[in-house]
Each structure stands twice: as C-alpha cells, then as structure tokens.
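Support request, please re-run this one:
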Amino acid sequence: MPMKFILAVPFAMVLLSFAVLPGLTSRFWHRRMAVISLFWVALGLVLNSASRGAGEAVAALWQISAAEFVPFMVLLLALYALGGGILISGGPWGRPAGNLLLLIIGTMLAAVMGTIGAALLLIHPLLAANAHRFEKRHLVLAFIVLVGNAGGALSPLGDPPLLVGFLRGVPFFWPLTYLWAPLLVLAVPVLGLCYGIDAYLAKREAQPQLQKLRVRGTLNILLLFVLILAIPLEGVWHPGVVNLLSAQMPVEHLAVTVLAIGCIAISEIFTPKSIRAHNRFAWTAMREIGILFFAIFATIGPVFALLQQANLDVDHSLLWFWASGVASAVLDAAPTYLIFFQAAGGNAAQLAAAPSHLLMALAAGSVFFGPVTYLGNAPNLMIREIAARRGVKMPGFFAYAVAMILVLTPIYILMSVLFF
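Re-run finished. Output below.
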C-alpha cells in the first residue's frame, strides 16, 4: 500500500471508533474515549515522523493544535456557553404548527447568528415544549438539517464553510445571491415531511397548554452578538501574526479567541444558575465533541493531501457538488470547502464572478450535505448530545446516516437537475 494511503489510516480509525464503538460497547467507550483517540493521534504522529522526520511531524501537530484547533474549539465552547445561558420559555411550540414555526424561525436565524448559535439557542425551547411527547426524534432530526446546517447557507456568518470563503475574498452577499434557491429546494420538503409526521403523531397525544413567551439571559444575548460582529472582522483586519512557541497564528484569530474566552468567563460568572439548570446545561456534553475534533484536526492532514492530488474536472459543476458534498458528510464541512476551494484555483474574484457555477456547486455541497452524518458539521454532535441529555433516544451513527441518506438523497438529485 502506498505510504500516502497508510498516513490516512489514523484518520479513518478515528471515524470508525466514533461510529462503531459507542454502539458495540458504550460503557467502555465513554470511559476510554480519550485514550483510544489519543492512540490514533499518536499513531498518526509516528507515521508522519517516519515519512517526514520527527521534528517536522511534531511541529505540524503543534501548529494544527495551537493555531487551528484551539481557536475553533474555544469559539465552539463560547457559543455553547452563551446559548445555554439564554432561556426561551412559553410560546406556541409543542404543537405541530408551533414546531413548524420554530423550525422556520431557526432556519432564518441561523443565517444571522450562525448555525451553532441558533441551534444552541433554540434546541432547548424545542425540547422543553415537546417534553410531553413520546416521540420527538423527527423534530430533532429536522432541526439538525435546517437549523444546524442548511439555514446557515445565506451568509458567511451562518456556516463555517462560507466564513472560510469570506475570509479568502468571496463577497459577503455572495451566499445570499446564489444559495437561496437551493436552500428553498431543501427546506420546503424537509419542513413538509416533518410537519406531516408531527401532525400524525400529535393526534395520539394530549395538546399542551400554551404559555406566554418569555426570554431570559439578556447578557448572553448581548455577548452572542458581540461574537457575531467580531468574527467577520477577521476577513478585513489583518495586523500580522503572533508566534506561539513556533506556531504561527494570525493576530485577528488570537483576538477573537481571547474575546471568546472573555465571553465564556462573563457568562459563567453572571448567568443565573436557574437558567443553566432549566436548560440542563453541563460542560460534559462538550467532552466527546472536543476529543473528536482534536483527533480529526490532528489526523486529517494526509486526507487533505490525497484530496488535493485528485484531478477534478473544473468544468463539471455537478461532479464538484457531489464530491464536495460526500467529502463534507464525513470530513466536516469547513475543511472540505477549503480543500475544494483551493483545488479550484483559490481565486475568489474569479470563482465568485457570474455565473459562478463552480463555487456554487462546492459551496452547496459543503453546506447542504453537512447533516448526512453526525460528523458533517459541528452543531450535529452538540444537538445530538443535548437531545440525549434531555431523554431523547437519538439514533446511532449508522442509523442516523441511513435515515438522512434516505430523506435527503432525492433532494440532492433534484438540486443536481435544477442547478448543476
């Protein structure tokens, strides 16, 4: 087997471990998750050392950990903390029409405050309002598709892949111009299917008594908007780089990371404990996510190298839509977008110029295939963990993927016919 494929084995084993072991031996997995993940990271380091030299391999791992994983994870933790410090109670949710309204609001809100922020803000009221329901997995699955993924398609603030494009020169309003129609093609049937299932199941259960809508956690809302406003500045403010024990980090990334840490601290100190308790907030919910993404960041480099070596026809937008989509479903959307963006030439002005078929294809693939697996986008795992903590029996990795493939593949085919 060529060395370039051997180097990708640790990444494949990370995915297999998180996909298979929780179902086969749940107790052992949750006790030894960190040890198993670190073993694959260590194996990747050994293989890279044999291929590139120990010094270069260690330096590359430190660069990825300090300059890429830490800013990513800190921002994720900040959004998790702020979202868990906002309490929305009452409102029309809990009935089919109300649940449909909440999904629509969440889809639109995701474009403004990001899929992570919108998901963490609204998943709690959705689950609380439907606590009386015996079956509510369909609501969580639709929520992952729409609020955790597709809703972010309309702005760089909405989804990490589009933020990556914005930071590399794609105009801010490009997603709104080119992705609104594919979003409708996906959102309308998913909303219709979810409402149909919800209305059918609701006939068997008592209707909840409606309560007055109330929002608490104003401080966290303000902090959330501070982060939302700060993130786009990374695309226009470039004061240089800072050296972190040989790791190079752009100053703007460091500034946002420090800001996010400050937001976490303020939120932890001043958020009433009653809000956290009502949302069943716990930092342990982020443990698996943190371990998973560290292992992915640490082992995914050789996979990127393989993708960059692939010869893709730049004139075939349909191929780019499906290739970027499938890769996004298993490799995470943001790095997938970056790899295909670079493979397409990396010239933002040229790619964004009308009719922009190629950029539209890889952007749509990266964003809209995100919900196919739990690994496709950062909010997926968080939503699953929060739902599980509130008693929802979420499907395992493969069962979830099969359900999403069955529902979403016809929609992707329709997108292919209409747009690519």
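The first helix runs from residue 3 to 6. The longest strand covers residues 211-216.
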